[in-house]
Design goal:
Elements: H1 2-11, H2 19-24, H3 30-42, H4 44-52, E1 63-68, E2 71-76, E3 79-80, H5 82-95, E4 99-104, E5 111-114, H6 115-131, E6 139-143, H7 149-160, E7 163-166, H8 173-183, E8 187-191, E9 194-196, E10 199-201, H9 203-211, E11 219-223, E12 237-239, H10 240-244, E13 258-259, E14 263-269, E15 277-282, H11 283-297, E16 305-308, H12 315-327, E17 331-335, H13 346-354, E18 358-361, H14 363-371, H15 375-378, E19 387-391, H16 397-407, E20 414-417, E21 451-454, E22 467-471, E23 481-482, H17 486-494, E24 500-508, E25 514-519, E26 523-526, E27 529-532, H18 533-541, E28 546-556, E29 560-569, H19 577-590, E30 599-603, H20 616-623, H21 640-646
Parallel strand pairs: 4-17, 6-7, 6-8, 7-14, 8-11, 11-12, 16-17, 16-18, 18-19, 19-20, 29-30
Antiparallel strand pairs: 1-2, 3-13, 4-5, 9-10, 14-15, 15-23, 21-22, 22-24, 24-25, 26-27, 28-29
Helix pairs in contact: 3-4, 5-6, 5-7, 5-12, 6-7, 8-9, 11-12, 14-16
Bound molecules: adenosine-5'-monophosphate-propyl ester (PRX).
Adenosine-5'-monophosphate-propyl ester (PRX) binds at residues 269, 315-316, 391-394, 416-421, 442, 502-504, 516, 519.
Amino acid sequence: MAEFIDSILKEHRIFYPSDEFSRKSYIKHMKEYSKIYKKSIENPEAFWADKANGLEWIKKWDIVLRNDMGFFKWFEGGYLNVSYNCLDRIVKAGKKDKIALIWEPESGEEKTYTYGQLLKEVCKFTNVLKKFGVKRGHIVEIYLPMIPELPIAMLACARIGAIHSVVFAGFSSDALKDRIQDSKAELLITADGSFRNGKIFPLKDNADAALKECPTIQKVVVVKRADNSIYMQEGRDFWWHDLMNKKNIADFCEPESMHAEESLFILYTSGTTGKPKGILHTQAGYLLFSYLTFKWVFDIKDNDIYFCTADIGWITGHSYIVYGPLSNGATVVMYEGSPTYPNPDRFWRIIEKYRVTIFYTAPTAIRALAKEGDSWPNNCNLKSLRLLGTVGEPINPEAWMWYYNAIGKGRCPIVDTWWQTETGGILITPLPGATPLKPGSATKPFFGIIADVLREDGSKANVNEGGYLVIRNAWPGMLRTIWNDPQRYKEAYFEKFGVYLTGDSARIDEDGYFWIMGRVDDVIKVAGHRIGSAEVESSLVSHKAVAEAAVVPFPHEIKGQAIYAFVVLKKGVKNNENLKEELRQHVANSVGPIAKPDKIQFADDLPKTRSGKIMRRILKAIAEGGKDYGNIATLADPGIVEVLVRSRVK
Ligand code: PRX
């Protein structure tokens, strides 16, 4: 009980940036935030037009925003080139020799690219694409691991006006096939293999399997990465290095003049129903939004070294490894492999090696690494860090505190950034020099964003009342449609309330702080009460015996739904029935008796994607005693599913 009270007290502490941090930051105080925020929502068009002047345009826009029957258009009549803004513009600003990209392979020698070098590589690959007949509006599928060729290929597409569709390299051939079939791409860029935990993942074999059912693909470009033996189909498959080393490939290519609303990329993401949705982002609005959010949320300065652990196969990598950082002329570290290879200090070693100043990762990674103990970070020099960030899921206060203390040493603000594939960039977030932090809260909306929480009937929820998180207005980085399915776009996002439905539940506290409770589909209705799975998990994790927890609903005869908790105990803790009862009581005490898990299953690990997200869908199927676990191929360890099924609590 004493520990429990202690942890609750900790959750109520508020953390302020140091005076020094605030003084040097772009947004220095909440008064400044409030003033700019007010202006930004009173006249969003003037706000965004002013910010858009920070980019370089071939022709400026005629109209800032237009609502075309529910489809939003930004900066119509304007022309620019995204790759130009991320490369040539930076080179012209005198940063030709500044390092743009540091690539840390899982094992072997790192590689660095200055802005000047990156521009050349991108131009060369654009010329390769042109030789294949790729033109503006064509779709290029990219199935690459975390290697420099991935951002190079994306920027080459952007330069020529081709639409890239990156498929996470951890996806199986089936997932790749589905995405190619939906996007109807004509060219695929892949690699022979990729490395993860020292093992080779056979990307080209997967691609070959997918391509059997993808007749639209005419040509395949293959990067040699793992040097594993692969099949190269004559006339269809070409080595990247052969194409790039041809004498007639020039190292400059004029960027295309792209209309603001032409497509930039498609990125597939899971919806509430089965088929993945191709989320479409366009040129100018997306670039502006990733540019400005990156600049202000990460308070980026010229001498910063920024490390984001996300995979570029997800939106975080698109916006905050590629487009946001490069359009700001920042130095970005990208890492190829597993956070625990060869040891669980890999991230901390990378921070030490490159003197990383800003570090952005996922709560799951934080929890997983915290579980390994403090000696790993304590043995590394983390003094260079000045700012930390998290994204992708709610962070429980205990993980927040560990991150703050064990990694940030109590000096670094943490930006808990809430956003989605659909939003293109960060919507709810602290501004690190201004916002007082409450561990576990994503705090306040970014400029130009009117976020709200609604009840089922569309009325505004009370203070601290959970409800549907919605965004009431349009913003430049928002998705424009779902590829090939404009109807689904309207239905999924706008039908329910007539404003953008995020699919998350949240509450707003008495200070106007947003607390994300989880996906609406993760909200558990126990005896009619709404309980955020994140709240129960946070409670469990606050118990001294617990390292990680995931909570899902299962059908209950009387209550409708009840809670099933999968619990990973800290190393050395013995599992037994007494502990189960203690945990139940702990949850009853911290969340409420209705949130008590009916069932607790102790587990060695939880099913996670390779990007570290816990797959609750699979846990839900296990908890329900179902047989269909959906696609488990993206799990870091698919074998975990069978282990959990065997010890399911009946
Ligand atoms: O539920 C929210 C959660 O991640 C969802 C979006 O997932 P995705 O499109 O894959 O994008 C992830 C990276 C931006 C949201 O609907 N989410 C994201 N960030 C947070 C979060 N939940 C709580 N706190 C966050 N900071």
